[in-house]
Amino acid sequence: MNAFSTTVTGGRKKRGEGHTRREEILQAAKELFLELGYEATTIRRIADRVGVSAPALYLYFPDKEQMMLALCDQTFGYLIESISEIEASVSDPRERIRRFGEAYLKFSQAHPDEYKLVFLGSNIPEAVRKLGHKMPTDDPTRPGVTGALVFQRLVAIIAEAEASGLKLNYPAETCAELCWMAMHGVASAFILKPEFPWSNRDLLGTGMLDIVMKGILRAD
Amino acid sequence: MNAFSTTVTGGRKKRGEGHTRREEILQAAKELFLELGYEATTIRRIADRVGVSAPALYLYFPDKEQMMLALCDQTFGYLIESISEIEASVSDPRERIRRFGEAYLKFSQAHPDEYKLVFLGSNIPEAVRKLGHKMPTDDPTRPGVTGALVFQRLVAIIAEAEASGLKLNYPAETCAELCWMAMHGVASAFILKPEFPWSNRDLLGTGMLDIVMKGILRAD
DNA sequence: GTCGTTAACTTACCGTTGATAAGTTATCTG
DNA sequence: CAGATAACTTATCAACGGTAAGTTAACGAC
Question: How much is the pLDDT for A123?
């Protein structure tokens, strides 16, 4: 992992060290997904960057999609982390909701490919599309479920806000859905139409947040 | 166009009739895009359904993406039509904006597959563009720009509202973008996650509209 | 030390993809 | 009938994701 972002590590791994190769593959895949997007990142390109042959990747992942999924969980972990941080450090309910929205938007812009994969259905088959939301009996360790966790946190935050005395203009669940939809609208617009000349991206983010807060919380 | 949704029309076209083949190709492509999505719809599958060889498609379209863009324009046309109707029949500025949002949502729910095709089509643009294979031209007659037309109508409606005395909380363009993003958030959520137990779909639609109107228009 | 086992990896290949080149056929014009 | 050419086909390309089968090297056991 040097400064030139080639991850070639040279020779064959020793007996018990296969997992380090796996991590090298993930690292190279992540770099390439971010550089080129999902489609343009080919198995061969990943293999080249790692310094192994293409089929070698299949010793560690069943297919290309699973590489992306593994990365999704990893990066969504960061989102969940920052949400947890907010929950831990911010006590004011209003501020919590706002900070959630900010974190969500910031994440979507920092990791558009992962966002696309989990929340936009993307081009990846059925398996991934349904995981954005709760599938109660499913294996919680399966890759790709972290998207649903994010939404559940928002529901919890808003429900707690109501419990702490804030008055909502809609049922808590509806408020959470409205909030998520609005922020998702901004996030997906930026991601899906990156070349569109948006008037002012920062203002759109903060503005939407203002609008939603004003819309779901009863005026003081 | 028979009951089995094969569009085979038989033999070779006569001299001046190439354009009818072009329409057959578009029809088949549309069906397949809706059935299978962009990625799974191959040139060969389209050609099979039309009843010609695969390279024949390249007599009418430069590449697969252009077929998609042509379909986008077609679908956007339906939306533009209903917007024009509103502009012609509704004079009150507030009501115009609201009706625009309603029409947009209604359109998305009446033609979910087409909406998905047009607005959620995350098909490659990024991947290809980043590889530098073909940079987007700034030719305004190029297919795929009608989407911007819809948005311009919303900008115009909101700008006219401002001109007629309504006070906006943001620049007109930003208001339009916020409005579109919010409605798109609702529309895409319903379409992308149809199985999610949304608390109340009607309330989410009208509620988001209320929230946006309240957010972009200064309170009376 | 050298053997068997097997993790780690390679070479060769499969079918399919979007797209192109070059040739063929059918229809229209003069 | 004789070009000309629109409409279309066959053959082919490089690149894709993925698989089969073989090779190399590191280990424990004796």
Answer: 44
